[in-house]
Write a structure and sequence with these properties.
The complex is a heterodimer of chains A (about 775) and B (about 325).
Chain A (H helix, E strand, L loop, with lengths): L2 H7 L34 H6 L14 E7 L5 E7 L1 H4 L4 E6 L8 E3 L5 E3 L4 E2 L5 E7 L2 H10 L1 E6 L23 E9 L2 H7 L2 E9 L11 E7 L2 E6 L4 H12 L6 E4 L15 H13 L3 E4 L2 H7 L6 E9 L5 E13 L11 H5 L6 E9 L13 H18 L4 H6 L20 H12 L1 H10 L6 E11 L10 E7 L4 E5 L8 H13 L6 E5 L16 H28 L6 E4 L2 E4 L6 E3 L4 H6 L1 E7 L12 E11 L5 E11 L6 H21 L31 E6 L23 H13 L10 H10 L7
Parallel strand pairs in A: 1-14, 12-13, 16-17, 20-21, 27-28
Antiparallel strand pairs in A: 1-7, 2-6, 2-8, 3-7, 4-5, 9-17, 10-15, 11-12, 11-14, 15-16, 18-26, 19-20, 19-25, 22-23, 23-24, 26-27
Chain B lengths: L5 E4 L3 H9 L3 E4 L5 H6 L7 E4 L9 E3 L5 E4 L4 H6 L1 H6 L1 H9 L3 H6 L2 H6 L5 H4 L38 H7 L3 E6 L2 E6 L22 E7 L7 E7 L10 E10 L2 E10 L6 E2 L1 H7 L6 H11 L12 H18 L1
Parallel strand pairs in B: 1-3, 2-3
Antiparallel strand pairs in B: 4-5, 5-8, 6-7, 6-8, 9-10, 10-11, 11-12
Helix pairs in contact in B: 5-9, 10-11, 11-12
The chains are: A alpha+beta (about 775), B alpha+beta (about 325).
């Protein structure tokens, strides 16, 4: 190889990090050459040009199309299903329902209550009743419409506030309470009596739907006893294990492939009934079956962020010391146990220093689709309550909202047993550096001043957050394969759900091996050919997979140095990898080209395996955040415009500034949806059916609903205790404080509290008419 | 997925009229509303007649008397960008610019915007409501956040068009072709309130289609505007909208037109409020007075009382804005 060819592969002259002895953790990176830079996504071309094949692009020879008949009532018993007309229709190859013999498989939203794939008792609108496989999608839908079902329509519950009424129908034999969780520390009674100010408010966040761009679904195909599934999923191994369990198959006989996927936000962590239905139809017909839901179906049956009504009582001393927080919440995970109150009290327990905290959360059943985890489960809801309360307390004691928050920053996790310390917390810097970058003080004064001018008022608001997880954890296995020309394969099981995982992992390999990013090829998200990974969610993909990938790259280096040491008859600890050579640090004349290393030649490749190590003991790894925004409120019409946003985040090391900022802006956008536009609306007083099940009536924010000025300011504190790459999660904290920051800015502008989402002229017009500052009610 | 129908591409207006006269025909122009209605089973059809090949419907022409004739196939984008409309009929250009989203404006036509079906989520959803021939209006006891505060009578839809109120303030007329020939109807009388007939939105009879909208020359010195308030800044119908036209002489209002969108089952003209403005100086006080008068007859439902302060605020703000413009 001549010089110029070598440069195809190697970053010239850049020394790679030290190689630790086998079995030892590597030292934290000191200076990095690739990690932390801004490089475009490694698969940007494929995504933008349309050559990337998503699961919904999969078309197999002889493939059939499936469609599902869903219960049109929120609560009904299926008395009879007549599929005879459908079966005789052109192109129809299979019809299955609760009355066909081959569908008797268990299904569960969580393990407490098992149901069936086609359960005769439908507890929510959209629950599956029958399914068809046909030669075309149109034929499948025509056949679905030809199925006659006799329903016994039952009384329904559409509001969680009515779930526990004695007159309400029972959804499950043991009553309508899915679970009650209680937590207490200190003595809230004593805390409130110490307080100078005590406020007690009720807040509500509406039900929000995930609405990823790519619909939910899969293609299923059998090859004798082996099932292959191409699914739009956040993790292939989680699909594999659940489907194997339901169908009673060995893991080795279920292959799940999920390369590209068009978003999930938590709703694709697990398979759906659609996955099982596709597999059953494929089995019955002996042909591949494609089952992707329609957009309308995804409004009903593939999860949501549970609506939550939260009461928060808080006490504060005049000096800003929080004395007590008492929180209760009633929320609903829908018609089955689905963790409707999961983590909804966490911020109250953990975000601010407070010795006396009591929480009680109740998850109740209603006749609506079961929830699924939604980007930072529980947290944006809690932030809506807690962060508005912090503002209200600050006003009552005449303190700046940021100052009050800064007064109450913990260095350890109070919500966990034994108060374990955080490995790092940048909450203070998120607030103080963010305030500086935002121009908080000036904006706060200027905005207040503008109240005198005309009927369009300006206000600024802040909210902060932490995220319960985000530290990552074992298990994860990654494999790096070094070819004789120095190019590299990275093999990992994790999915890239749009956050840039592939790009970040490429950068880690590139950093360790000194190979150019474009010479790293990734194989990923396939249970047959790539390594084990938990699904991408919980903001844990980078801190989970990153260290495993680094370890795999290090293993390659260790083996390479060991082989080279044998060739060079020297001690491997004196050797280092530089460009396409292994060279002695003592004597630069002692060196060998990679492709001449005997051990590599003998094997053809060097394979390094990396595992995710354990997290530090008795320490908590959490990301922290503060967001700032400025709004303009028209007091005559209740219109709110968001003028600018700043996201200030501590997620440890910034792996790639471009994908980092993408996450921040995406999270803020989603938070604006919660704050301003999104809400599931059920016809609560008549039919219980969802009335806004389309993208026009269910209002996702558009580009005109987000501010032109969005900024991201990372508080970069590499977290060397957390893991070997120093990064914490980012994908979820970015959406936690957003809605609360908007509500606080609206309050600052017009002195009216937004107790409920979404903030629209519907709510604001009436609130403005009523008027009245907090505490003056 | 849609019920079976025949498709025919009309070569002329006459051909189109013949086409839809056979059975239950429907016109396809931009198709942005028709396809949604068919897919959601809002109605069925046995014959879809495309008029997109009829060249004479694609035009915006100045008329000899200084007015304007807009072919039914002129797109919403063409209307919002037309220099002559922007200059002489600014409320119409503003209304067109506020319609839906850029893609829908590029595809949707003025004829379709006036003849579109209501957006009530019961009407569009799996509910056999009064307007679809059922026995009740689900909005009465239902989720009526976006429903009407004026003119509800059995049915409580709001008229979805942004362009209709703007056209009405200019006194526009619809030209209609049908089996019996051509006729003209002023746009103010083009829409059918539920009190008159609950399953119809326009005066179009079987086999009739709108071929053009004719605008008279604008009054000298007329100031006009359209403003729309919505929950989302693009691709959303009006929570409240107002088309306004005022003319003053010696500082006092001589002519006034106020027509609302998002308020009633048809574009809602406020004659009392218009009359109250006449003779007044259009200042903040008279704006406030007019606004209060505008909503005095409102009859809100359970979840839409917010529309009263909203319309009040909107009208007051717009009267002030237009008088200062």
């Amino acid at each position: 190889m001549n010089e110029s060819e070598r440069n195809i592969y190697y970053l010239r002259g850049i020394p790679v990090p030290e190689t630790p002895p086998p079995g030892k953790d590597p030292a934290p990176w000191k200076k990095t050459d690739i990690v932390g830079t801004s490089i475009p996504r490694v698969d940007a071309y494929e995504r933008v040009s349309g050559t990337a094949r998503y699961p919904s692009d999969i078309h197999l020879p002889r493939m059939l199309y499936a469609a599902v008949l869903r219960c049109p009532h929120p609560h009904a018993e299926v008395m009879n299903v007549d599929t005879s007309a459908a079966e005789g229709m052109p192109g129809v190859r299979a019809v299955i329902s609760g009355i066909t013999s081959d569908t008797d498989f268990a299904w569960w939203y969580s393990k407490e209550i098992k149901t069936k794939i086609f359960d005769p008792l439908c507890r929510f609108e959209g629950e599956e009743v029958a399914a068809v496989a046909a030669e075309t999608a149109y034929q499948a839908w025509d056949a679905v419409r030809a199925i006659t079902v006799e329903y016994k329509v039952l009384p329904f519950i559409a509001e969680e506030s009515k779930s526990l009424d004695s007159s309400s129908p029972l959804l499950h034999p043991n009553g309508n309470t899915a679970k009650t969780d209680k937590y207490s520390r200190g003595d809230v009674g004593a805390g409130f009596s110490e307080a100078d100010i005590v406020l007690d408010e009720t807040y509500r966040t509406e039900c929000e739907l995930h609405m990823p761009m790519e619909l939910h679904g899969c293609v299923a195909s059998w090859d004798n006893d082996r099932l292959t599934i191409w699914e739009s999923a956040q993790g292939v191994y989680s699909i594999q294990s659940r489907i194997a369990e339901i169908l009673g198959l060995p893991l080795s006989k279920v292959r799940v492939i999920g390369h590209y996927m068009g978003g999930g936000f938590g709703s694709k962590l697990q398979p759906g009934k659609y996955t099982v239905i596709a597999a059953l139809l494929a089995k019955k017909t002996g042909r591949p079956v494609r089952l992707f839901l329609t957009r309308e179906e995804t409004f009903l049956a593939v999860g949501n962020r549970p609506p939550a009504t939260m009461q928060l009582k808080a006490g504060v001393k005049k000096d800003g010391t929080l004395t007590a927080l008492e929180f209760s919440c009633i929320a609903t995970g829908g018609a089955y146990p689905a963790n409707g109150t999961g983590l909804v009290d966490w911020l109250v327990r953990d975000l601010y220093l407070c010795p006396n905290v009591k929480t009680e959360t109740k998850d109740v059943y209603i006749n609506a689709g079961p929830s699924r985890p939604f980007r930072a489960p529980g947290h944006p809801q809690a932030a809506w309550a807690l962060e508005q309360m912090m503002d209200a307390l600050a006003e009552q004691i005449g303190m700046d909202p940021i100052e009050l928050r800064l007064k109450n920053i913990p260095s350890f996790s109070q919500g966990r047993e034994g108060n374990p310390p955080y490995t790092t917390t940048g909450l203070r810097e998120c607030l103080s550096e963010g305030a500086k970058a935002f121009g908080w003080e000036q904006a706060r004064k200027y905005s207040s001043g503008s109240k005198e001018n005309g009927h369009v008022k300006r206000g600024v608001g802040v909210a902060s957050a932490l995220w319960f997880a985000g530290g990552g954890n074992p298990p994860s296995t990654a494999v790096v394969k070094l070819f004789s020309d120095g190019s590299v394969n990275l093999n990992m099981g994790a999915s890239d759900i749009g956050t840039g995982t592939k790009t970040v992992m490429t950068m880690i390999v590139s950093e360790e091996l000194g190979v150019k990013p474009e010479m790293v090829q990734i194989e990923y998200a396939d249970t047959a050919t790539t390594q084990y990974a938990t699904p991408s969610g919980g903001s844990k993909t980078v801190p989970t997979e990153g260290p495993a990938v680094r370890a795999a790259a290090l293993s390659v280096k260790q083996q390479l140095l060991s082989f080279a040491a044998a060739d060079l008859k020297t001690d491997e600890s004196s050797l280092t990898l530089r460009g396409d050579e292994v060279i002695s640090m003592k004597d630069p004349l002692v060196k060998v080209k990679i492709h001449d290393v005997t051990g590599l030649k003998k094997r053809g490749v060097i394979v390094g395996v990396g595992y995710r190590g354990p997290n530090p003991e008795r320490k908590v790894v959490n990301p922290f955040a503060a967001q700032f925004c400025e709004v303009e409120v028209n007091t005559m019409t209740g219109e709110v415009r968001i003028i600018r946003f700043l996201g200030c985040h501590d997620s440890g090391r910034v792996m790639n500034r471009l994908t980092y900022d993408n996450q921040v802006f995406g999270g803020i956008t989603m938070g604006i949806g919660l704050a301003m536009t999104e809400a599931r609306i059920l016809d609560r007083d008549q039919t219980g059916k969802m009335v806004n099940r389309n993208l026009h009536d269910y209002k996702l924010p558009t580009s005109l609903d987000v501010p032109k000025e969005m900024k991201s300011l990372p508080i970069e504190k590499p977290d060397d205790t957390a893991n070997t790459i120093g990064a914490k999660g980012l994908g979820e904290p970015v959406t936690i404080p957003t809605a609360a920051a908007v509500a606080n800015a609206v309050y600052h502008a017009v002195d009216v509290r937004m107790m409920k989402t979404p903030i629209t002229p519907l709510q604001l017009c009436q609130a403005l008419e009523k008027g009245g500052k907090e505490g003056s009610k | 997925m849609t019920p079976g129908f025949s498709y025919r591409r009309a070569a002329s207006i006459k051909d189109a009229v013949t086409g839809i006269s056979e059975g239950n025909g429907r016109i396809l122009a931009g198709g942005t509303d028709l396809l949604g209605c068919l897919r959601d089973s809002v109605f069925t059809t046995n014959m879809v007649v495309s008029i997109t090949g009829i060249k004479e419907l694609k035009r915006i022409d100045e008329t000899p008397g200084g007015g304007l004739s807009i072919g039914a196939l002129a797109t919403i984008t063409e209307i919002s960008e037309s220099p002559v409309i922007r200059e002489r009929y600014p409320a119409l250009a503003q209304a067109a610019a506020e319609v839906a989203s850029p893609q829908l404006r590029n595809q949707g036509t003025i004829g379709g915007n006036l003849c579109q079906k209501p957006r009530c989520w019961y009407y569009r959803g799996e509910f056999h409501c009064l307007r679809k021939g059922g026995d009740r209006c689900y909005a009465v006891a239902g989720e009526n956040h976006y429903h009407c505060i004026f003119g509800g009578n059995g049915c409580y839809i709001v008229h979805p068009s942004d362009t209709a109120p703007a056209l009405i303030v200019y006194g526009a007329e619809a030209t209609i072709a049908g089996p019996a020939g051509m006729r003209k109807v002023s746009l103010e009388n083009f829409f059918v309130p539920p009190a008159k007939e609950v399953t119809k939105e326009t005066v179009l009879e079987a086999g009739e289609i709108v071929t053009a909208i004719v605008l008279p020359p604008p009054l000298a010195g007329l100031k006009s505007s359209y403003r729309k308030i919505r929950s989302r800044q693009s691709w959303d119908f009006a929570l409240a909208g107002v088309a306004l036209a005022l003319r003053t002489s010696n500082g006092r209002v001589t002519d006034a037109r106020i027509v609302l969108s998002g308020a009633a089952p048809v574009p809602w003209r406020l004659v009392d409020a218009e009359n109250a403005l006449i003779g007044k100086v259009p200042d903040p006080d008279s704006a406030k007075y007019t606004a209060a008068l505008s909503v005095k007859d409102a009859q809100p439902l359970k979840h839409n009382a917010y529309k009263i302060p909203l319309f009040k605020g909107l009208i007051e703000e717009e009267v002030v804005n237009i008088s200062q413009a």
